[in-house]
Amino acid sequence: MIFISNRNLLTFLMACEVSYFAISLGFVMHSFDTGMTSGLIYGILILVAAVSESAIGLGLIAYLTKFSGTIELDRLNLMGSRN
């Protein structure tokens, strides 16, 4: 279970990226250990997914900052008015 202590959307996305890179590194190191290339392929696929998630996340942050003025998760009210 993930507990978010800092309610900033940017730091949350950065933490997800670090997790993706750690998983990718695990696959790559396992492939070097066993001599199989499947771990490298999985590592590259995870990195591609992480890069696309970063691009989408930064686009969402830019959109939220433009219309709500903040990226704090506590202050975002996406279902209500803009007051």
What do you see in this structure?
The chain is mainly α. It has one domain (9-68). Helix content is 69%, strand content 0%. The protein has helices spanning 9-34, 38-68. The longest helix is centred in the middle third of the chain and has 31 residues, at 38-68. The radius of gyration is 17 Å and the shape is elongated. The relative contact order is 0.15. The mean pLDDT is 80.
Biggest sheet details: none
End-to-end CA span: 33 Å
* Cα Rg: 17 Å
Content-based structural category = mainly alpha
- Please report the total strand number as a whole number: 0
Helix content: 55-70%
Shape: elongated
**How many domains would you count in the coordinates?**
1
pLDDT < 50 runs, ≥5 residues: none
Percentage of β-strand residues:
under 5%
Number of helices: 2
Mean pLDDT: 80
Order of helices and strands: HH
Describe what is shown at a glance.
This protein is mostly helical and 83 residues long.
